[in-house]
Specification:
Layout: E1 2-6, E2 19-22, E3 32-41, H1 44-50, E4 61-62, E5 67-74, E6 86-89, E7 102-106, E8 110-112, H2 119-123, H3 126-139, E9 152-156, H4 161-172, E10 176-180, H5 184-193, E11 197-199, H6 205-211, E12 217-222, H7 226-236, E13 237-245, H8 256-259, E14 264-267, H9 272-275, H10 283-296, E15 304-308, H11 313-324, E16 331-335
């Protein structure tokens, strides 16, 4: 089968940073589905795993943690899916990724894909939808059914993939959403998705909050830079408020700032359930089905901005370079082999 992977961890401008491969087609066992991958999308995790600084490999590493496709065959313990089912999923960081014609994935982290979307649009949704949903409703404790109505949520990095989904999910939950963006196209994007207020992350946030009548916010979802916003998050969170971050910190985080306000800081990593095979792993299947239903009934908008074709090393290098530029709005997908 065709695949794209790496043997060496190199800067993306190097031709060998991602290479075309020919690998054996895997066979499903247990609760695994073998999915024929029709489209994939890229996320910051792809570029972080590929980043230079690690020793060369003797076996290839296949990246990719977003896919949409069709079930080709199933393991003997599979309970829900059958060959021919159209599915979408983000996968498992501990297993070979989706940048291959066929991929094995546990059925408990797979959902039926939205019927109203093209396959590449569906492939743009899983990782960011799971991350945003878990961040808001599992980590921050907000209520998806609207019982948190009126609470204020600041999303730092509103125009990226996770931010794009978090804005929409927060509006479904009847929250007041403030999202950061700086360029006109990203400002227009977050407004299109439903943000009530847009703040410029290149300017001080406390003064901008005051300008919209707020001294502090109830919750913060930081999708951009944990270290860079740590102090300002502690400044603008309400006493006993909650902060969720998704980007790993590089330095020491001063917990005293959180202690003074009895503020809660939580992490969100959508791979936790699959990596540790948690007892509630199937919640991601339910979550993806919910995202598909909300999309099909018009409650959620697709966030795909660009599609490259076909899926190959050259186009994936282009996609990684776009991500690393820091200017991506929404998502970029690739389709067909």
């Amino acid at each position: 089968m065709k695949a794209v992977g790496l043997y060496q961890y190199l800067p993306i401008e190097k031709p060998d940073s991602l290479v075309d491969l020919d690998l054996p087609k895997p066979e499903p066992t247990g609760r695994d589905l073998l999915v024929r991958v029709e489209a994939v999308s890229v996320n910051p995790v792809d570029t972080k795993v590929r980043a230079p600084g690690k020793p060369a490999r003797t076996t290839p590493l296949v990246l990719g943690w977003d896919a949409a496709g069709v079930v080709d065959s199933v393991g003997p313990a599979v309970q829900r899916f059958t060959p021919g089912d159209s599915v979408f999923y983000a996968g498992d960081i501990t297993r070979p990724g989706s940048n291959s014609e066929y991929q094995l994935v546990d059925e408990r982290i797979v959902g039926y894909r939205p019927r109203s979307l093209r396959v590449e649009e569906a492939a743009a949704l899983p990782l960011v939808s799971i991350t945003a949903y878990e961040a808001l409703f599992d980590r921050l404790g907000l209520d998806a059914a609207g019982r948190s109505s009126g609470q204020t949520l600041l999303i730092i990095g509103g125009a990226g993939g996770v931010g794009s989904m978090a804005i929409q999910l927060a509006k479904l939950a009847a929250l007041t959403v403030l999202a950061t963006a700086s360029r006109q196209e990203s400002i227009d994007w977050v407004k299109h998705l439903g943000a009530d207020h847009v703040l410029n992350h290149r300017q001080p946030l406390p003064q901008q909050l005051e300008a919209v009548g707020l001294k502090a916010v109830d919750c913060i979802l930081n999708c951009a830079d944990t270290d860079g916003y740590w102090d300002v998050m502690a400044d603008v969170i309400v006493p006993q408020g909650k902060i969720c971050t998704i980007v790993e910190n590089k330095g020491t985080l001063n917990q005293q700032l959180m202690k003074l306000k009895s503020a809660t800081h939580v992490w969100e990593l959508m791979f936790t359930r699959s990596k540790y095979q948690t007892a509630d792993m199937i919640e991601q299947q339910k979550l993806l089905d919910r995202i598909a239903d909300w999309t099909d009934c018009g409650k959620l908008k697709g966030i795909l901005q660009e599609t490259l074709q076909p899926i190959n090393a050259e186009n994936l290098r282009t996609a990684h370079a776009r991500l690393e530029s820091g200017t991506m709005i929404g998502k970029l997908a690739l389709k067909d082999w």
